């Protein structure tokens, strides 16, 4: 039944595709990108209900004034911009290493083959938890705190993971600790980087 499980994400995407046209544009997008003040206020009222949103609107106007001279670039322009190449290389290396290290960790942990589907499901659930948790705390703590905290937490988890993998031959239960640490690593990655 893996094909049904994998097709579930397609079902969610289809539902979003059907209902998305009925939602208003984001108020910041309407004001900052489209410069539509009336549309921005209308979207605020439609999304948040009737009320006075002058404070939020003023904050957006301040943000617009700060970013007035900033050019918005598309993906190809970002890739051509030399000043962002170090950041892009760092992100690319991080993403590639994450893709490659997961297979090696499961292999090193000597997990039973019957448990691998559950581990894969656990990885997906960890990603979902991190997305929900991050979106609820990012406004409270800010991106900088989440990035620094996420990287520190990831480093600590990687040290614990390496230790558990090294000792997994001596202590059988550490194999399962490594799986839990992988889940925690994914959550920490989702919260920060």
TrEMBL record:
It is a multi-pass membrane protein. The chain crosses the membrane at residues 6-24, 118-138, 145-167, 173-192. Signal peptide: none annotated. It comes from the Eukaryota. Its main location: membrane. Pfam families: Sugar_tr. Keywords: Membrane, Transmembrane, Transmembrane helix. InterPro entries: GLUT, MFS_dom, MFS_sugar_transport-like, MFS_trans_sf. The keyword Membrane applies. GO terms for molecular function: D-glucose transmembrane transporter activity. One of its GO terms (cellular component) is plasma membrane. This is GTR9 protein. It comes from Calcarius ornatus. The gene is Slc2a9_2.
